[in-house]
Amino acid sequence: MNYEKKYVWSILFRLCHWAFALAIVVLVVTGFYINDPWTNTWLENSRTFPVADMRYYHFLAGFVFTAAVLVRLILYLIGNRQERIFNALPVTPGNVRNFFSTFAYYGYATDSHEERLGHNTLAGLTYLFTYAVAAAQLVSGFYMLYPESVTWQSWGLPLFGTQQQARFIHHLLMWYFLIFAFVHLYLLVWNDVRSPEGMISSIFNGYKFKPKHDGSAKA
Amino acid sequence: MPITINEFIDDPKCNRRSFLKACTITAAALGLSDAMIPRLVEAAANPQRPPVVWLHFQECTGCTESLVRGSHPDIARLILDIISLDYHETLMAAAGHQAEKQLHETMEKYQGKYLCVVEGGIPTKDNGIYCKIAGRTAMDILAEVSSKSAAVIAIGNCATYGGIQAADPNPTGAVGVWDLVHDVPVINVAGCPPNPISFLGTVLHYLTFKRLPPTDQLGRPLFAYGRKIHDQCERRAHFDEGRFAERFGDTGHLAGYCLYKVGCKGPETYANCPAVRFNDVGVWPVGVGHGCIGCTEPGFWDTMTPFYERLPNVPIPGGGGIVASAESTGKKILAVAGAAVGIHAAVGIGKRIVKGKSEK
Ligand code: HEM
Ligand code: HEM
Ligand code: SF4
Question: What is the pTM of this model?
Answer without folding.
Answer: 0.89
